[in-house]
Amino acid sequence: MHRVLISDPLSEDGIKPLLEAADTEVIQKPSMEKEELLEEVAKADALIVRSQTQVTKEVLEHGVNLKIVGRAGVGVDNIDLDAATDNGVVVVNAPDGNTVSTAEHTMAMLMSMARNIPQAYHSLQQGNWDRKKYVGVELKNKTLGVVGFGRIGRVVTRRAKGHRMNVIAYDPFLTREKAEKAGVEHGTLDEVLAQADFITVHTPLIAATHHLINKDAFAKMKEGARILNCARGGIIEEEALYEALQSGKIAGAALDVFEEEPAVNNKLLELPQVVSVPHLGASTVEAQENVAVDVSNDVMEVLRGGNAKQPVNIPSIPEEMQDKLTPYITLSEKLGAFLGSIVRGGLNNINVYYSGELTDVDPTPLTRKVVKSVLQLFVGNRVNDVNSYKIAKDKGIEINEQKTTSTKGFTNLLTVELETDEETRSIAGTLLNGLGARVVRLDGYSVDVIPEGHLISIHHKDQPGAIGRVGSLLAEHDVNIATMQVGRTDIGGAAIMILTIDKEVGPECQEHLAHVEDINRFQYLKL
Known about the structure:
Blueprint: E1 2-6, H1 16-19, E2 24-28, H2 34-41, E3 46-49, H3 57-62, E4 68-71, H4 81-86, E5 90-93, H5 99-115, H6 117-125, E6 143-147, H7 151-162, E7 166-170, H8 176-182, E8 185-186, H9 189-195, E9 198-201, H10 215-219, E10 225-229, H11 238-247, E11 250-255, E12 274-276, H12 285-303, H13 319-325, H14 329-342, E13 347-356, H15 364-379, H16 388-394, E14 398-404, E15 412-420, E16 424-432, E17 436-442, E18 445-449, E19 454-461, H17 466-476, E20 481-488, E21 494-501, H18 507-513, E22 519-526
Parallel strand pairs: 1-2, 1-3, 3-4, 4-5, 6-7, 6-9, 7-8, 9-10, 10-11, 11-12, 13-14
Antiparallel strand pairs: 13-15, 15-16, 16-17, 17-18, 19-21, 19-22, 20-21
Helix pairs in contact: 5-7, 14-15, 15-16
């Protein structure tokens, strides 16, 4: 039974997948004090939060059974990602669930600011009828500058174009070709600041974006420009914004988020040019349900041994690549485990080569599986997809990934090579239509082995009777051979045999096998 701790208020409909799962126990305890949180997380397999709970290094270290932390929302500012990675905990969020909600909210704030709607409403509530004081501006033919052209930025753009606005966008990953396809003008940050009548920011809050819109940025804007922040507090430097509003350089600001929240004593709220609300971008019934559903599904998938769709601290497999890569996940794990079980010496390098159709995709998720399965043999089960690369780096193990044109006659070929201080060994595998995963080469010898179950790998001298002696010895210990693959380079030279057997080989049998005539090396492994 998987124990899922929910420490912030979430939509009941959104967590219904968890509540209805037969293999999941859901503990809902919002607004816990620190000591209670530490006590509860120590018993949890998964933790789901929104923005209230601070998932610190201490919390993660207390979560000795934690496999996943889910953030029901986009930002993960309240989660220590480095500590999560160190502890092998997957962090997921829900970047799509509140996209529409935040984009619609941005447009609502934009129009409210352009037409002075909150100010006029407040005046009317005070018994005033002052039409001239609240004259606004139209959106048509105005230029909207979008800083951050991700999911929300793109949806805001489509809605703005519906209002006949011109759009210029800046994003470090936005190319001119992509901008043209989206129907927007591509610009640098300075070009966006200089040309826009309205500027909206939609970036994450990271070191590079903290105070991205600062005093220098305001100086580059048009006289009378207006700015919005429905993303994260801290992207706009509030002191600089206050000065720009006071001087008249900036005609208005619409703020959903602040550097410190709750922003009850923020002096920006005293200015009549500022339209503000208390962080409502994702506050719709639909968004709250959507983000909870998305995170709940990812949590269940990970707890059941699957892969998260929206991981934050490990690369996800793009949807368009999942059909090509997913069938190779098991193969990559098996190849790593097979070779890791038989290699000798201190590990220096893990090299993974891809050929055939696999060169058309980013195979990093498969490399990560190889590294995990190799390191688990040396370090134990604390190694997983999340921390495998970091553990390898900490231990001075270099990971190399390369695409090659050599397919050895196969449609796809995945080759793993391990370099130690004693030797270099390699294994190659593929997927055969209708037959599944196969090992097709081991140390240069051609074989055809299903990488599962109980296996014996033997390096021996190609001499008459060598195979028979192995078979006889196994029979003496009541071990049945299911399949046998034999490969050699030259008659009478070095050779290998790989046996699939029906049950585990005991210590006594292994000892006898190691001393059979003409056997140079023997390893038993279970996949």
